[in-house]
Amino acid sequence: MFFSSVAAFLLVYAGVINFIGFLIMGIDKLKAKKRSFRIPEATLFLVAIIGGSIGSILGMYIFRHKTRHHLFTIGMPVILVVQIIVVLFLYFGPLNIRTI
After folding, report:
1. Residue 6: phi, psi to the nearest 5?
2. Which residues contact 50 (CB under 8 A, 6 or more apart)?
3. Which of 17, 81, 94, 96 has the maximum number of C-beta atoms within 10 A of its C-beta?
């Protein structure tokens, strides 16, 4: 019972944070076009680091935002790969979260 509630929470969290990552890329692109106050790059990366990397990458390419910046075109996928490795390690590694 505990695992299913944790898994459900993690799935909802992943969905919400990825939606936020996607959304802020679109908002920042719109603000860039209007030459308005921008969302700091640190915030864009923070959202990706805390789990929104897929949404941020999708937003980056769908909105064509930050695609000329190597920090983003390389950094965002690196964050995603690290997150995948961490999840695989937690799932299959010595901690074996499957038994929680």
Report:
1. -65, -45
2. 17
3. 17
